[in-house]
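fold-stage: in
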Amino acid sequence: MNMKNSTVRAVNRLTARWAEAHGGDAGTVFTAAGVWPLLAPLADGAAGPARTELAEALGMPAERAAGAARELLAALDGVRGLRAATGLWTRADLPLEAAWLERLAPGGHGTLSGDAAAGHKALDAWADRRTGGMVKHMPVTLTEGPHGTKLVLASALTLKTKWIRPFLEWPGKAAEGPWAGLPLRMLYRSTALLERAAVAQGPKGAVTLLEVVGDTGVDVHLVLGEPGAGTGGVLTTGIEAVTGARPLTPASLLPEGRPGPGLTIARELALTPEPRLVVETPAFEVRAEHDLLERARLFGLEQARDDSRGHFPGVSSEPLAIGSARQSAVARFQAEGFEAAAVTAVAAAPGCAAPPRLRYRTRRAEVRFDRPFGFLAVHRTSRLVLAAGWVTDPLPYARPAEKSLEEKLREEAEAWAEEEVWAEGEARAGGE
């Protein structure tokens, strides 16, 4: 990924601020890497207080933002398993400034007919196509009439990665916390690489991080804080740790006992001298819808939402204000890999033999995610946080459906047929 460190830091700062602002402990997933490239061209075309506020949210001067957004989107789209796209739709009667259009990242430019139903159909098709069906609807409300939606600027970010080593999956239960006793889809893995688990000390206490390595240059870090630490504090500490802003101590250097949330380190007798890290976590799927205007100041949109006047003379000679700004996001963590997608839209309107002998005394670390935890999808080279979220409802284990009598009889008949074929083959072989 070829991009400036300043852009990575700016996007990561917005991710951390969004994590901090997340109210309550509800499950969520969000991607500032999908919002930032939309705020940048808005800042480029804004004037007055709206331009100043957007620049503050972006973490860079407005005049540099459009170029940085183009570089970011090109770099994201160049990562294997990652796809990024932008789209612009405008009313045919909306004049656009040629210079602003030239500075936009490459993408499709469609027309809004003024028919909300037809417009939604076209925008939904774009979102569905760009995310491979993970996000089927564009998170925007189109309004009709002379004061209806004039412009929609959207981004789609889709990530799919497979684990270098898949997890084993079977039904299990959490040992503590709100999930205790519930049948869950538990994922298990062990490795000799103790450094995959580490602990960081944050303002809200210790945070345990587990790095799960993907095959596309993107890794996922699971983040577990102290009970009651809260979503924002845990995620923020995690973001600072994975981006190098906060020190991490790997499990190989931690003392025995319970040096971090969900983490136990001890000595054990083993067949080989290698240390062991044992991981247990539930599979999860998280979906979220975000109204960015509910945190308008965070995204630099407080001034720009004032529809009593225009704020974007660099976009159009017609006065424009922000009518809506939303993001739809989804993330899935399973035995084989991880995938996430987000669509953001801004709209402007006027495991028997005899037991072997144990010969070695080795270090064993075990990390369990038994209660709500966070996750961060991070590009390995640049340390750009591509997606962040919080898991409160892991995937339950569902018993296979009981087979019908018809299915059982069919399977029995097929088994008998296979045995007859085998017996005929054996008889022929004996005759020869």
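fold-stage: in (second)
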Amino acid sequence: MDLYEHQARELFAEHGILVPWAEVTDSPKEAREIARRLGGRVVVKAQVKTGGRGKAGGVKLAADPAAAELTARQILGMDIKGHTVGRVMLAEPVDVEREFYVSYVLDRATGRFLAIASAQGGMEIEEVAARRPEAVARVPVDPAVGVTTARAAEIAEAAGLPPQTVDVLVRLWQVLVREDALLVEVNPLVRTARGRIVALDGKVTLDDNARFRQARWGSGDAGHEDPLEAAAAARGLNYVKLDGEVGVIGNGAGLVMSTLDVVAGCGARPANFLDIGGGASARTMADGLAVILSDPAVKSVLVNVFGGITACDAVAEGIVQALDTVRLTRPLVVRLDGNNAARGRALLEERAHPLIQQATTMDGAARRAAELADAA
């Protein structure tokens, strides 16, 4: 569960990390009053759960309360990577001397957390890592030990951060542990002209398995969630909206991730991540197809299933039955492999739907889905 920036900043403040004064609103008129309370000159920032807000025009400096109202009116309602801006945060500007990047993220491969830090903040960390990999420090953190003051000092030294950041690194680890987070990121973490260390922006992802302990973040937000993700969540689907044109359904997170990579390698962009897990029932397939087909950006759909506990013929039967309740409006490419794959393919051939095509390999299926999306 991703938090909005203003929610992440709230957590930071609760754990003793300095953040600029800020308030959130969905009203341009109220934005004027907030700017007046904050001293007139403010930064107006779109509150959406995606990156790239600055490049999209969702972060702007307003010189006075009247400008704050006008800027809020311009940003509210904007579409940023498929997310509609429903609220803006107005924050007092900060006199920045230096910018840094710090984060903690779960490393599932090793069963540990990874501290990622750089003295080059304020830009995409991927760009920094690509251009100057030596400028990004990656320090493993044993969750049984955590980030002590000594470990924080090691992280700061490895990344070239000033000693003043050590306390913040310790407190950010406390945010991660106490709030059940999988990711805690500050970009930029800045040193002001007065020598204070301040978190100007924040990203926090909480563990969905800990929602019962983090219930305060699950209320009052439905109106600002991505509508497709909200619809999928209501159906119990493991779905994430992406920015492409090829819808993807698979069974197993690893297979779906591989499918996304293969689709991208074929020159297309995946429109979503959708893992139907081990039980591809007719209802699950119908719900998955309904969500994906309701995305106007989708031009073709790829179903990539490896039969194991759930056999391929059961998946095929689910697709056939789903067609009774979901109107297929875009081409559907199906690749079945594994347990009872031949029987599953035969079932789809018997159904003979004009918009369903089959492929025997993942590469072939992805290539065909990309071709169909390009031709649409």
